[in-house]
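Predict structure. Input: S53 family peptidase, 408 residues.
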Amino acid sequence: MRTPQFAAPLGRAAVPLLGSAALAVSGLLAAMPASAAGHPVSWARSCAVDLTPGHAFCNALRVTDTVEHAGADGITPATPSGFGPADLRSAYNLPTNGGAGQTVAIVDAYNDPKAAADMAVYRKQYGLPACTKTTGCFKQVSQTGTTTLPANNAGWSGEISLDLDMVSAIAPNAHIILVEAKSASMANLGISVNEAAKLGATEISNSYGGSESSADTGYDTTYFNHPGIAITVSSGDSGYGVEYPAASRYVTAVGGTSLAKSSGTRGWTESVWSTSSTEGAGSGCSAYDAKPTWQTDSGCSKRTVADVSAVADPATGVAVYETYGASGWNVYGGTSVASPLIAGVYADAGAHTAAVPASIAYAHPSSLNDVTSGSTATCSPSYLCTAGPGYDGPTGLGTPNGLTAFTG
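Output follows.
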C-alpha cells in the first residue's frame, strides 16, 4: 500500500467537539487513500465527519486523482471513468428499463442548485430517458415540501449528485424526489424522510449516518417507521462500527463491497470493501435498537448491521456528473453509492407488501450474490467484520442477483 496522503474534506465544517470526541473526529476528517483490488486511489470526503449525537454526515467519497480522457469534442469524456449504468446492471443482473410506476426519494441535507441539470447530463451520457421537473418526473423540495430550498452546500451537493445518478442508473423509469433538509441534524433529516413518504415515495434512500445515541429508538418511531416503503441507509465508511440510522430496525442497512470484472460465469467478483482499519464498510451490533424478528444471527442481541450490500470501494467506484463543488465527471465510492443503488433495485422490483422490505432478503438469501472474502477488522464473533458463507456484517446477506430478494 502506498504512503498515506491526506486531503481536507469538502463542504461545510463540522460542529466543534470537545475532549476525546474532538480527537476522534480530527482523525476522521482527513481523507485517506484507498487501495483495493490493486488499484490505489486517493479520495476526499464530501462532508466533514461530525460525531455529535443527533448530527449526521454524508458517506460520499470523491476520488481526487482520476484523469478523464476527452472525446472527439475535446471536452466531453468519450467514456467517463468509473462504472456506468450498464456495468452496474450487468454486475447485479438487473433489468435495463426498471423502475416504472415507482417513486424513489433521495434525502440529503442542504441544497444542490445544479441537481437537475447535472442529472440530465448523466442520463444523456448513458442514453437514459430524460427525467425533468417540467414533465413531473423529478421534484426538488425542502423538508416541508416547498420549493423554498435550504442553503447551497458544495459538500452535500456531491452526495446529491451521486445519489441521483445511482437511482437513474438502476431505475431509469422511476420518478425521483429530492428532499433537502435545512441542516444535517437527525431531526431535520428525519422530517425529510417523513416528507418523502407524504409525497408518495415508494423507496427512500439515505446516504448519511452519525453516532448512535439513546434517542435513536425515538427517531425510529418518529421518522423511519413507514410500513411498505423501502428505506435504505448507508452502513458507513469507517470500517467496523455502527452508525445510525443504519441501525434502525425499520430500514435496509446497506454495506459495501469492492467490485471487479472477471472471466468467471458471473463476469464479476466482489469482496468486502476495506482498505484500512478506519476505512471500509460499516458493520456491527447496535447499542440501542432492538433486533428485528426477521434477523436471526446470534452474535448480536440487538440489531445487526448490515442487511445487504453493493459496490462502495472508491478504487472500484462509479461515474458521477457534478458541477456544484466540482467541475464535471468524477468517480465516487463509499456506502453512499450502495444505498441509492439498492433503493433503485427495490424500485425495479415493484410494490412492497412486507411492512419492512429488508425482511424480504432474509426469506430469499440464495437469490443474492454471497460475498465470502475480505474483512474490515478483527472482532468477535468474527462474522461481524469478516465475510464468509451466508450472513456477515460488512456485506449482509450479499449483493443483488436479480430482483427476487427485493420482491414481495
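The longest strand covers residues 279-290.
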